[in-house]
Amino acid sequence: MINKNIKSSAAIISATDLKKRIQHHLNSTLGDRVICEDAYKNTPQNKQAYWQATSLALNEIIIDKLQASKVQQAKSATKSINYLSLEYLMGRLLSNNLHNLNLYKSTEKALKSLGFDLADLCEEGADLALGNGGLGRLAACFLDSLATLDYNAMGYGIHYQHGLFKQSFKDGHQIEQPDMWREFGSPWEICRPEATQLIPVYGYVEQQAQTDGSLTSVWRAGKMLKGVPWDIPIVGYNSSTVNALRLWECRADSAFDWDTLNQGDYLQAHHDQVNAETVSKVLYPNDEHDAGNELRFIQQYFFCACSIKDIISRYQLQFGPLTQATSRNFADKVAIQLNDTHPTIAILELMRVLLDEYDFSWQNAWQLAGKVFSYTNHTLLPEALEKWSVSLFEHVLPRHLTILYRINEAFLNDEVNAMWPNNEAMRARLSIIEEGEQRKVRMAHLCVITSHKVNGVAQIHSDLVKKDLFPEFNQLWPEKLTNVTNGITPRRWLKSCNPLLSELLSKHVDDDWAKNLNSLSSLSPLADNASFQKKFMAIKHQNKVALTTEIKTLTGIDVSPEAIFDVQIKRLHEYKRQHLNLLHILALYRRLLADPDLPMQPRVFIFGAKAAPGYQLAKEIIYATNKIAEKINNDTRIQDKLKVVFLPNYRVSLAEKIIPAADVSEQISTAGKEASGTGNMKLALNGAVTIGTLDGANIEIAEEVGDDNIFIFGLTVDEVKALDIKGYNPYHFYETNNEIKACLDWLDTDYFTPGRAGELSSIKQSFLEGGDPYKVLADFESYSDAQQALGVAYQDKKRWAKMAILNTALMGKFNSDRSIEDYVKNIWFLTPSV
Ligand SMILES: *Cc1c(COP(=O)(O)O)cnc(C)c1O
């Protein structure tokens, strides 16, 4: 019954063959850096060398498939999707690639005969953390699904030298260290110097008279950057397709600097070199926040310009010259998706190239842009909506700004004026330019005006995009705004990260569930079956034991796998409300101190979260959590009923360890603030029960699993809005709820920070003087009641097992393959190339 549909051509590679390939790389590719007499010993050096050799051996197989996919895609002449994203949170690649190629078992066997454990070796790889959180992880899941479904797809991004910072704690404070993911190179990437792009930047625009007397704009650039592409193969699961993620590294164009060099200014030439390299040096560590400086702007432009040029040259290589006459074919063969507004400049760059380099008329260029681009909105938070100053635009991209003005004029004069004649207020509201002391470019407006489709990422979020964010755009183009609910790849987030559960599911499901996740619903009748419950919960227990060891290693804290593992893992942000969780922990602690014999199932609260380095309050919440944890974990009076663990350096590979062991999934954002969430899907798929608000995809998860199998609490979107209109007064809750008051006042004392009272006061202040913008106090009581009900439910073993099983069984909708098929049907119009 298991894997009966596996058709992967690579499946024929035997363990013996793999062993030979691994040994070959050890002995030749890696030279004698590796191992001498201790060749079979698990020293750290040897493990690293074997990991590298295994990855290289696998990559060889993958590159063969990559070439074959290119041939097949050319032969079938299918339309391609070009996914533009400034972030890709890929995680480690070895285990996933092995699973997707159906080579995990044979590689395990090959390595065993060499004295190594594959799972252990997989730990050697660095995470590819070229993203902050959900947005970058979504891009990674989408690439997996696109290859799995045999679509012709290319991911475009930046080859950051340093990905998201590494987090550690010192005395409870977050410390950031640079991420060195490719200090000694990465076995997965392939440099493609033949596809290098030259990118002009700065300078001025000149008007030139044509022979017919008309004027054209000519951009005299002030500096030239060079984009060098690195390809990372993306292996489909049980499919014949391998696509590529193409990441651009920025270097100075030495040819351009030759003049400076010849003028004898050798040092200046080298200085420029360094400047260029800073463009792809580091990922900006802000999640849900706009960074707003020149280097970030150049990063965005650099990657858009490289990608647009590459898309056009790949098109021409296959289909011949791009001209006005062939432009319809271009739109038939190329779709470009903008993952948030970060790649908006791609619109202006395509227009510029068509106008200035391919002699398109304005009308033709604009029509083409409208056909190829579509845009995904990821946020309603005002601080995350990108706006760039007009003066920065003028300085860095003067030609693009003139194009932007023309797009805006046509939009305001034709479309806006037709719908709302002579309405100055409406023009000001919808203009791409925001007037004011400093004029700004609203990137989202440019995206909506240009794109043929704009999607939100969960139903409620898409509804709010229509109703609150872009109501006028929705009036202008009622068909444009749409929804594609996010998803996750079940390959990484179940098959690869939870092998024990995967094996159990495969025994009971008569289909390849890692592809057709809906088939897990056939488990529903087993949710009540005592013997299946026992097996399911035994696996959860085993995963908890494994996490217990990890927790001990990483933090030194002892926890019991008999306790409820209550997990909140995601970026640290006020809207995600880790501080609501923390406030409830304080309340539980107080209740336990008041009555040490309080009947309650022991709980371990597990956190994982990075705070943006400049986000002060977020860092203080981390510090407070660590200090409160220290106190609670060492308080013998509460008899280990409560433990708090903050695991450092939350990232994909750590998520893969936590999620299979979670009993409870905390999804407690203020209603209306979390666009979708994907962590909620990963946890539920692995049998964690959600406690959450009616926000983002939680609503759709509740629809799938049913109200009996989820703990919903708190204000709804409409109630939050009503409260804002009425005027929210957090002091009301402070003054009328003794528990809230006691817990907040506790933060002012030195109880958790002996001798240093006041260190945690900023959190209390944010709730009171700060106005509690995310309604933590308003939702506290409802949250506390839901937690109470959850604790009771857990003690009924059969009831809990049933809930956990149904969560796993009913997550089919959240397969990212389904999201991709939604995009394909409604936005991209692709056909598989196989
Ligand atoms: C899935 C994931 C996220 C997104 O989590 P949310 O709970 O949806 O915010 C962030 N970081 C990592 C490492 C992830 O794997």
From TrEMBL:
Pfam families: Phosphorylase. GO terms for cellular component: cytoplasm. The keyword Cell membrane does not apply. It catalyses: [(1->4)-alpha-D-glucosyl](n) + phosphate = [(1->4)-alpha-D-glucosyl](n-1) + alpha-D-glucose 1-phosphate. It comes from the Bacteria. One of its GO terms (biological process) is glycogen catabolic process. Its EC number is 2.4.1.1. Keywords: Allosteric enzyme, Carbohydrate metabolism, Glycosyltransferase, Pyridoxal phosphate, Transferase. Its cofactor is pyridoxal 5'-phosphate. The modification N6-(pyridoxal phosphate)lysine is found at residue 682. GO terms for molecular function: glycogen phosphorylase activity; pyridoxal phosphate binding. Phosphorylase is an important allosteric enzyme in carbohydrate metabolism. Enzymes from different sources differ in their regulatory mechanisms and in their natural substrates. However, all known phosphorylases share catalytic and structural properties. Allosteric enzyme that catalyzes the rate-limiting step in glycogen catabolism, the phosphorolytic cleavage of glycogen to produce glucose-1-phosphate, and plays a central role in maintaining cellular and organismal glucose homeostasis. NCBIfam families: P_ylase. Belongs to the glycogen phosphorylase family. This is Alpha-1,4 glucan phosphorylase. It comes from Colwellia hornerae. The lineage of its organism: Bacteria, Pseudomonadati, Pseudomonadota, Gammaproteobacteria, Alteromonadales.
